[in-house]
Design a protein that fits this description.
Elements lengths: L7 E2 H7 L4 H8 L1 H10 L16 E3 L6 E3 L6 H18 L5 H12 L5 H36 L2
Helix pairs in contact: 3-6, 4-5, 5-6
Amino acid sequence: MMDKSNFIPLNDILTRGEYSSSRVLYALLHPLVEQLMSKTCDDDNQDNGTLTIDSIYLSPSMNEVDVRSASTSESRNVSDWGAIILDVMKQINSNDKKLAKIANDCLTGQITTLSQLHLMLERRVSHAIYIILLIIIISGLALLASSHLGF
């Protein structure tokens, strides 16, 4: 585990613009969701904080996340995560429609648990892989058919 005193506030990263937008967004997806999973409890009535851009710190390598303040309420953290993602996407001019929909679903209450959020993030990535695989398979079949037909 890296020394967390070297971690940089997300707000500073966004202001300075030193890192690529894709690296920033990646850090806010799975690593942040996993960090929130370790900080929540089952009691949604107990609430002791708010997840904000100011409470998220990233390692210089962007591989680790440190959440300095978050709610212990899972549904509150999911909603806060959605608001942060939409804010960050606006600041870095990202037009990832699938990610924006997931973030909006978190805000509107269609996604209420971190498990659901994690699953939606996985689906977002896996669909792209299937499309690439489908293109490769179709291309291979076309080459195979053309070689048998003598083209």
